[in-house]
Amino acid sequence: MTGSQLQPRIELVDVAKTFPTEAGDMAAVRGVSLRIAAGEVFGIIGESGAGKSTLVRLINLLERPSSGRVIVDGEDATKLSPEGLRGLRRRIGMIFQHFNLLSSRTVAQNIAFPLELEGRLSKAQIRARVDELLGRVGLTDHAGQYPAQLSGGQKQRVGIARALACGPSVLLCDEATSALDPETTDQVLELLAELNRDLGLTIVLITHEMDVVRQVCDRVAVLERGLVVEQGEVVDVFLDAEHPATRRLLREDAADGAPEPAPGVRTVRLTYRGAAAYAPFLSRIAQETGVDFSLHAGRVARIKGEAFGQLTLSLSGRNVVPALAAFEAAGVRVREVTR
Amino acid sequence: MSALFANVEWPGIAQAMLETLAMLIGSLVLTVALGLPLGVLLFLTDKGQMFARPGLNRLLAFVVNVLRSVPFIILLILMIPVTLTMMGTSLGVRGAIPPLVVGAAPFFARLVETALREVDRGVVEAVQAMGAKPRQIILGALLPEALPGIIAGVTVTAIALVSYTAMAGVVGAGGLGDLAVRFGYQRFQTDVMVVTVVLLLILVQILQTVGDRLVAHFSHR
């Protein structure tokens, strides 16, 4: 689900945010344009201080943009009245790194809170809705407990249930798994993927962890010093990172283990995915063309369920050029690697 | 017993105890009624907060600081004309309440402000993100989250008021303090002094214990 050509659910048009500080103005976000389609999981990744937190807060106007437009469902959020803005915020749920639950309220009361604020449902209706949400996040047995009695993963589930209470179409996740251990992170990400599938929820997720993006996102934008330096399908960005910032996040060396250049030797990176990942193309092409190869680096993994592989190898001997053509014919992407 | 407390007139002690309690309860209720909104206002008008008004905030802070820096014994005397016009008398329990409230409310307001500052900003942000109105943020999130801190503040204020009521005895307010000064000190009746001090001590202990229990009951951190 990538249809960015359809009317986007969220559109940022040249949005900038500057904070006044004692040392002068500090530009946290410097002219970012993004289109996020309904029903997609969109990741915004960057190192700390890249402006991710500010950027996500511009979507529900917790931060007002210094310039540019924030359009949600075709409506310019910056032009809304205070009442209109509150309505918009009820349609955008948000979860946080540190959960931000009310310590004075039980799990059930925390989830009921946005419904009480909205004031649309009766007490009985709120109770029924809270029960339903507790079931969805698997916390039915913890309804009467206070947040302090829960584990991190459970707290984030309460956060998610609370964010879903008013039936939003968008969920903003501000480093929602950064305070959790790897196993709990996986469980929370699975829950988010499930909500995206079942409810068609549009999810905007900011993180500094590439693994989070790889597991759940359809598309990703890489943010560096307040600017989007790279964006696209997660598979493309992940496998063919162009920008140094992206490579840093991937902990990837540009040369990826490639050897010193030598005459008659070409070092290439082969990227293959989907059906090609399971075909024995390497041995077949080596046999057919008689090309010699030596392997320098390789990885095989899955991105959002799709298998992919990436190999860095040096080709030498006869038939290097026909071998490269054969790789491409087999659906493998070939890129020259230079040191 | 009667030999040991030769000078102690128990009905008089009981009367003084009731006066002290009346001063304490009356002034505590009014102190909370005035100090709580003042503390909320001090918090909300500070820079970076929901209703940042630096000018108003500085003015409020100045008034609070001035009132807090006047020693209570001086405030008692300074307040006499004001008390006279407000209550028709500057004596007795009624006469004691205005200076007690003016002395304690700014102190309590600062404690409320501190308790509100302790509330996690992230929680306020989360409630804002839910589409809450400012009134809902204050009444639904800020105050309930700060409640244990505010109750602790009420306890501290109540105990400060007990010692203020004793001082108010000097300007004719009645109560245990008055008894201690007039009989225990000026007439050298040490037994009266001991009884009044012990009673004040018990009162403070009860206030602290009740306060601590309430804080524990409302705190879920």
| Uncertain regions spanning at least 5 consecutive residues of chain A | none
Total beta-strand segments of chain B? 0
Instruction: Output the strand order for the largest sheet of chain A.
Output: 6-7-8-3-9-10
Largest sheet descriptor of chain B: none
What is the overall shape of chain A? elongated
**pLDDT averaged over residues of chain A:** 90
The end-to-end distance of chain B, rounded to whole angstroms, is 49 Å
Number of strands of chain A: 14
Helix content of chain A: 25-40%
Largest sheet of chain A: 6 strands, mixed
Provide an overview of this structure.
- The complex is a heterodimer of chains A (339) and B (221).
- Chain A is built from 11 helices and 14 strands.
- Chain A is α/β, with parallel strands linked by helices.
- Chain A has a 6-stranded mixed β-sheet, sandwiched between helices. In chain A, strands 2-1-4-5 form a 4-stranded antiparallel β-sheet.
- In chain A, strand 7 (170-174), helix 6 (182-199) and strand 8 (202-207) form a beta-alpha-beta unit.
- In chain A, helix 10 (281-289) runs antiparallel to helix 11.
- Chain A starts with 9 loop residues before the first strand and ends with a strand.
- Helix content of chain B is 80%, strand content 0%.
- Chain B has 9 helices and no strands.
- Chain B has helices at 10-44, 54-69, 72-78, 80-87, 92-117, 121-129, 134-168, 175-185, 190-218.
- In chain B, helix 1 (10-44) runs antiparallel to helix 7 (134-168), helix 7 (134-168) packs parallel to helix 8 and helix 8 runs antiparallel to helix 9.
- The longest helix of chain B has 35 residues, at 10-44.
- The model of chain B has no long low-confidence stretch (mean pLDDT 93).
- Chain A binds chain B through residues 60, 62, 85-90, 92, 94, 96, 98, 100-105, 113-114, 116-118, 146-148, 162, 166, 172, and chain B through 120, 122-123, 125-133, 136, 140-141, 144-145, 147, 218, 220-221.
